[in-house]
């Protein structure tokens, strides 16, 4: 007589979802009147307010497109018969493309206009969707190349477009600050929406409905292309390549503060990459049975909650220097990664650590965006962001080859690399804080 051993699938408590929703709701709607974002005002819409609301809707659609392909990820490629070795190599190809080509797209965006680069983002997604739809055996290398380039554009082009348009419309500093955390908030919510949409389309029948993901991506992309083409008017770029090169050299290459800020951005980006590659293998280590699809929204919900802390800290009753806040946040995230890398943890502990990581990241993203507005001219903003990701893409490519393909590194080793990077980023931000104080003092003495 055989013995049947029942295994329990670990799932997060439903109370956690309710708690995050209530906290986000209270964090936004209990803000003091002077701290409520203009986007939520009920006053007659000005041109600036209309643009902000339209942009957030437009950015949310773009985030849904970006997140749709990650809903089933490896499972979708396994359905097409792609092996794990091919998946790892496709990741390497993607980061190689981002390193050698995506790093310079920001400069191209500054030169030819952000509208054209946003159109490129949609065209790449549209191509991947049509290619998967009409091909029974889509090439994973081609899809990885296109989606990596699209992700590179997504990392800088929309933010730069928003900042430039706000400047043209006579933006106020507080309104721009609100837009940064609202972008993080809506992006995280849209990623959750893409998971809900993907699961609804599949409807428990992957073999029959796997192509519906491509259909949804194609439809949303066509809507976005139509809006960008007809509803977005952009003035032609006046600066020549020679003028841009001089401006970029003066304001980026020769500015030590930008070097420090770029390293911080690279370390943060690499930590996010390391997390999304390794979080699932870390949680299901030793054959643990976990419902990963229910944990994913917890992370993004924590990121949404973290982003709502921005107006409380910098527009509300609290007053904290941004550089100082980032120092503490980066040290905290580094400690989280150190704990995960050093010791074996129960599933519940791991999930709570990862939730803490995303809550901190929800606050780090708008803080870095605001620092870019303080130190980087809008004319070279896209080039600075894309070029700052070169170290992150290079390290990601190296560790994927050594750890994922050649099996020379443990996953914990990659997490340690991310932790050390975050600690070094905290040191750079501490130095930037000192230089910022000296700059303010010199301005007062003049």
Automatic annotation (TrEMBL):
Classification via InterPro entries: MFS_trans_sf, MOT2/MFSD5
Keywords: Membrane, Transmembrane, Transmembrane helix
GO CC annotation terms, alphabetical: membrane
Organism from which the protein derives: Olea europaea subsp. europaea
Superkingdom in the source lineage: Eukaryota
Membrane-spanning parts: 15-33, 54-72, 87-105, 140-158, 179-198, 210-228, 258-279, 294-314, 326-344, 350-371, 383-403, 409-432
Family from the record: Belongs to the major facilitator superfamily. Phosphate:H(+) symporter (TC 2.A.1.9) family.
Name of the protein in its database record: Molybdate-anion transporter
MF terms (GO), sorted A to Z: molybdate ion transmembrane transporter activity
